[in-house]
Amino acid sequence: MDSRVPDLMRTAEALAREAGDLIRRGPERVDVAGTKSSATDVVTAMDLAVETLIRDRLRELRPDDGVLGEEDGLQAGPSGLTWVVDPIDGTVNFLYGLPVYGVSIAVVQGRPDPGSWTQLAGCVHNVPDATTWTAGSGAGAWQDGRRLPAMADRGLDGALLGTGFGYRADRRRTQGRVVSALLPRVRDIRRIGAASVDLCLLAAGALDGHFERGLNPWDMAAGALLVTEVGGVVTGLRGNPAGEAMTVAGPPTLVAELCEALEELGADADTEP
Ligand code: IPD
């Protein structure tokens, strides 16, 4: 294990918990502060406040590291490490009071994108119930201080999958078609609303797999490390790395079968066949 990992895990967890405290102290009624890629892609004042808090803390604690945050983009640092931050993953759930939304914080070495990075540590803190998942490269994955066991290998048939629907309206028809084609083969498909939490639930055995088109680095940086630390695979289609085009996560057999099914369905095509 890289000797920096334990300290980076502690920092990620401390920041995620402090951010969670800020959100829990916040107003009951949440207003939309703006929209981003589409009308459904919203940002609240709390998203902005939480990212500012995390950036301020990292400036004090780790001044040489870079930060890539969902709301404020990339600020590079000389150390080669970058903190990848989603201040509130599941903003729409947060807006509606649907109790699954988390703070996701990871630290990676190298370019902060899933095709290039080496993930060192990460934490996802589900704000409403304070469940906290932490992982470190070579140090395992943990839920509320309990080490998560290795994931059992299994196939796609009868699996419980998680997915998400990206905000781009032009992709939603394809996403609907893919879900309806997969449904007869699996136990069910959940759309929980916070990809980082889906990945942690997968690592904890509460889902068998997850697939999603349109994920950004901050949605997956921490959760994907939890999945790989329990023996899972996180990848894209046709041997590409996980990323915006497609992210498929789960045990090796399920991932291979799900990739094959998604490739056959043209799940990463932007135009309907
Ligand atoms: C979103 C959530 C959602 C996923 C979207 C993400 P945000 O993140 O993770 O589950 O389906 O693709 O963008 O915008 O709430 O931070």
From TrEMBL:
Work out whether the entry's keyword set contains Magnesium: yes
What chemistry does it catalyse, as a reaction equation?
a myo-inositol phosphate + H2O = myo-inositol + phosphate
Q: Which family does it belong to?
A: Belongs to the inositol monophosphatase superfamily.
Per the UniProt record, the source organism is: Actinotalea lenta
Q: Name one GO molecular function term.
A: hydrolase activity
Q: Which domain of life is it from?
A: Bacteria
Pfam families annotated for this entry? Inositol_P
Q: Tell me the cofactors it needs.
A: Mg(2+)
Q: Which InterPro entries match?
A: IMPase, Inositol_monoP_metal-BS, Inositol_monophosphatase-like, Inositol_monophosphatase_CS
Sorted UniProt keywords: Hydrolase, Magnesium, Metal-binding
PROSITE patterns per the UniProt record, alphabetical: IMP_1, IMP_2
- Annotated EC: 3.1.3.25
The molecule here is called Inositol-1-monophosphatase
Give the enzyme's main class according to its UniProt record, as a single word. Answer: hydrolase
